[in-house]
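Reproducibility note. Readers wishing to regenerate the assembly model reported in the main text can use the exact inputs given here. Chain order matters: entities are listed in the order in which they were concatenated for prediction.
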Amino acid sequence: MGNVLLILFGTLAVAAFGIITGLVFLGVDRILVARMQARIGPPWQQPFFDFFKLMSKENVIPRNSIPWLFNLAPLLALASSIVLLLYLPIGSFPALLAAHGDLILIVYLLIVPALAMVVGGFASSSPYATIGAQREMVTMISYELPLATIAVAYAWKLGQAGVAHPFALSSITANPIWGLVGPVGLAGAVLLLLVLIVVTPGELSRIPFDTPEAETELAGGLLVEYSGRNFALFYLALGVKSIVMAALVVALFFPWNVSDFIALPTVAARIADLAFWLLKIEVVIFFAASLIRISLARLRINHVVSLYWKYLGAVGFLALALLMIDGMIA
Amino acid sequence: MDVTTTLETGYGAWSPLVWLAAFAVTMVIALLIRSTGESRYKKDSNQTKPFISGNEAPQDAYHIRAGNLYWGYLEALKGYYQKLVPLHTGIMTDYVLWMFGVVAIMLLIGLSI
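Running the prediction on these inputs yields the following structure tokens for the assembly.
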């Protein structure tokens, strides 16, 4: 009974936290992008204003669509994004469901929000949305390979170092990879970080991997028919998923807390760790989303596949090989 | 094995029921958020027509063939598929030959390790 209540109230707390911080970071992202373009940009609360505005607008359901699927997709996208956050540590708080899922599960669950968008796109029965959904599926297939190489390389290294439960996030955060490798393995770990940084904008459908939406080409692609509260839910899902991807990068590569270095009373340590975690999340979002989308133009879908499947896949395997060589040298 | 317990492999863990319970709670949260939004719209008006940049399109033009689904994928890996597709001759003996070839290579690798 205690566990059920913990999951219930914990899920509510994490959902509120994920949605609010997701929107705040979307606002910060817009300000930073504006400043890099020599614009002032909107206030940081703009995503909140956008959300409430969308909720007050008409929720149009296209006449050729499959209404129940069309309405279900945004719910699925938001719910599955929040669930992902339950498997990831937040600050020095361990993940709520840490004992019930590992890195492999997270890699698989990352597909669900994207799949929800695909379902919504196909259910729209619009040519733009259908093309967008098709592109989203191809993008999804493409970044799976580099993402899988990261999970395998990480668990292999931890297993080789004799760490129990190498796929568990708690084992990964307790044993940062930087402390387990020599110079050759360090190069491999840096390459893995690079791969995950490039996979992040693909997972979030942000420029240069926004081919499924492509406003100037597909008029919004798989979201073209969405409006009102359905679109607002997709917007919330984007915010939560941004936090999820950044939290994954932080958990894998930057798991340190302030309380690891400075002795603080328990409550102060929790607050300091949470503040430091939020700072790390913002830094990751800045480099993986804001900076990349301001620097590059949209890639064509076949270029997205080439980049992820051929080049990043090869970099992932190279990183795995470097970690193995490092293991043999040590 | 009891389905209510978390599967512990020694490498990681996975509990479908816990995921399902958490997913049910988050679905309720999403539904509650959705229920606070505006649900009305003008049915059977022009606003429900699929958006095609303001153009009129016949009914059959709304559908994109599923044959286009993997275009980007096939285009990016063209070199690989150009070599792979002709190997699929549809002749049974060819496939059996391939199977024997692959088994022989695997045996050689296995014996050499």
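We highlight two features of this model. Chain A has a mean pLDDT of 87. Chain A touches chain B through 75 residues (CB under 8 Å).
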